[in-house]
Amino acid sequence: MRSGDGRVALVSGEAGIGKTSLLKAFAAGQPSTTRVRVGGCDDLAVPRPLGPFLDIGEQAPRLEAALADPAADIGRATLAELRRVDPTICIVEDAHWADEATLDVMTFLARRIPQVAVLLVVSFRDDEVGAQHSLRRALSAIPSGAVSRIELRRLSRAAVRALAGPDGEGDAIYAATGGNPFFVTEVLSGGMDRTPASVRDAVLTRMAGLSREARSIARVVSVVPSRCELGLVEECCPPASTGLSECEKHGLLVVDGSTVGFRHELARRAVEENLAASERRDLNRTVLAALVRPDAPPARRAHHAWQAGDIEALIVHGRAAATSATVARSHREAAEHRARIAEHADRLPPHERVVILEDLSEQAYHASQPERAVSSRRAALAMRREVGDPLPLGATLRWLSRLCWWTGDRAGADAAAAEAVEVLEAVPGSRELAMALSSRSQLAMLAQADDQAMEWGNRAIALAQELGDTETLVHARNNAGTAMSRSDPDGGFAMLRDVVDTALQAGLDEHACRALVNIGWNSRGCRYDRARDAMQRGFAVADDRELALYVEYFTVSRAVLDLMTGNWDAGRARSLDAGRSAGSQEHGGPHTRSPSAWAPRAASRARWRPAVSGRGLGTRAGKRRAATNRPGRMRSGAGRLLLDDAAQIDEATREPYALALRVGHAWDVGEIAIWRFRAGLLATPPEPCAPVFAHEIEGGARAAAAGWAAIGAPFDQALALLGCGDPTGVLEAVALLDGLGAVAVAARANPAGLTARQMDVFELLAQGLSNPQIAATLVVSPRTVEHHVAAVLAKLGVVGRGGVARAAADLGISVPRQVGGGARPT
Fold this sequence. Notes:
Blueprint: E1 7-12, H1 19-28, E2 35-40, H2 51-57, H3 61-67, H4 74-83, E3 88-93, H5 100-112, E4 118-124, H6 135-140, E5 147-151, H7 157-164, H8 170-177, H9 181-190, H10 199-208, H11 212-222, E6 228-229, H12 230-236, H13 241-249, E7 253-256, E8 259-262, H14 265-273, H15 277-290, H16 298-308, H17 311-327, H18 331-342, H19 350-366, H20 370-387, H21 390-406, H22 410-424, H23 431-446, H24 450-467, H25 470-485, H26 489-505, H27 509-522, H28 528-545, H29 548-564, H30 568-584, H31 598-608, H32 615-628, H33 646-663, H34 666-678, H35 691-697, H36 701-711, H37 714-721, H38 727-740, H39 743-747, H40 756-766, H41 771-778, H42 782-796, H43 804-811
Parallel strand pairs: 1-4, 1-5, 2-3, 3-4
Antiparallel strand pairs: 6-8, 7-8
Helix pairs in contact: 2-3, 3-4, 4-5, 7-8, 8-9, 9-10, 10-14, 11-13, 11-14, 15-16, 16-17, 17-18, 18-19, 19-20, 20-21, 21-22, 21-23, 22-23, 23-24, 23-25, 24-25, 25-26, 25-27, 26-27, 27-28, 27-29, 28-29, 29-30, 29-31, 30-31, 31-32, 32-33, 33-34, 34-35, 35-36, 36-37, 37-38, 40-42, 41-42
């Protein structure tokens, strides 16, 4: 490896397939000039934060010091350590057990691997890493050109026969083990005269041949999921040297430096699962008592306390482990530790119990566990109500408001936010009140109730300025600036840009990203250049700070923007990335599963392959937007579908359209109205409606096309030109579509410039059907048919219905013959 030529190797396979053996052989075969660093993840009830990097830190003093510093950037410290010597091999084993902080560091390294002379090797059990597993996010961050995948497979029947030898029972062994190398090895070493039916039988058979002292050691080691220190074994089973040698000799345990462990994790599990419940508890108590040294990780102590049923110890060590996980940003692990404590919260005094519940709720929120976050916050709220102290009660209500919105409960969010302000107004000069006011402003802004958003926001801004509270000030100005941008774009966007600069200077990275999202999102339809600048800057900030949620959000938003502006190659690639990322967050709330993520996928399908229906994606997007009551997010995937089926468009757009009419602004309404118009579901522009959409609905397709050209949206410009009513406009549209590669759309254009629904009406007119017959055939109202007939006659340049058939012949349009009874052929 040369500097700037790093790679990632992913070694995957089921348990027992030989991943560890392969990596040991690989590491042992490296020349002395290559530095090898190895760390592993543990199968603890709740993993220890940064486990593999703690292992590596034992061999690297600089990294070890950084790991001990709560303020250190562990990702950058690890990268600096790996860069120190070229070349370096960094091996992370059993990543399927990785904690959240470990995955964050792995993601950080993976994104930067092409620029360093490092080979990052990650092993994991692919059968334990499903589509929703957190490891998927880290793996998806690896640049596609810098990754190699090594998928280990089971031994074939022929290979097992070869291992068994000419006189062995190769077929029987293969049938019993399925070709799993570990199973095969265990069966072969156990003797052919008593072939075990499973690995448990093989391991327990081997255990039975050991002395009592050796079996005791094996049992102790079996309850320690990670590597067990030799000193711990000595303390739990004195004297241990003879029994330990016996375990090694029989191939059950392996001593590696100062630690000992089973030759394979499956063997450890087999021994542990064979223990009686009382014996398992006693052994865990013994190990817990031995882990009194200061450097023992609190996660290990909490694990053994839980397994031992020692509730008091679980509370003590679980708190320490939760704090450690929180500092390391391992939110999932922090939530798990607090959840275990919360199960026994009745042993705590009320003031401690409520803090545990609130901490659990916050960590569950960050870990995308909506049900746990809401339920624990509601439990804490009930306790806060009993005490009645307004500051913590109001803060808890504000948190509940955020969680309700996050889970799609808009009514609950509004109620909790309103009560938070009411409660906190009893303490008029508090930071909690300022944040509660800002939260009300945010909810109003999201619902596009801009006057209310500005009113609440200005109150929050004034109080935050009085208190010198930068974070609340930034939060409130973000809301106010976004609301202002819809009526005063220059003033609103100036405020948002100032919010970005202030937030970045104060280290409030997430607030900066939210402001950049709002700049980009609210620039749609007027300034795509400004939107692009905001999205690119936001992506750079989020990527550098490893803010995964915003990396996803900006990827989604850039994909939408690329599709809107005709940069389809980039848009299509980003939409696929966004879809994979959204899928990996399927258990999160609406903010983690950005509803917008489905829009570019639907749009990409429709624009590249218009014959393929994107109905499911569009409908899913609409329902998710409706759940949060956010017209500002109504980038209707269905609205961009190029479907001829009016019923499908009606189904996909009906709910978003109703919501837009109720609380949306002109652009939100028009964006959906135009597709309902093109499908024959709308005859006149609604109020409000942005001019670029209203022009086309009113028959001014040329004016609409000019508006799209000024915005920089060639695809929408072409669609408007298709309805301009003259062959020249249609030819211009076809040229634009051909330039974009939208061949399928161009092929559906017609010289008359009729829309798909107008073509339906035109064909029925040419067949001689009356307006009522056309209405019955198309299942629309007679009034709608009247509007379409008038538009068709105007575009064809004919005065009455009698000229329709002649116009069709002149234009070379084939018209189906009428079938008896006035019905169209099916």
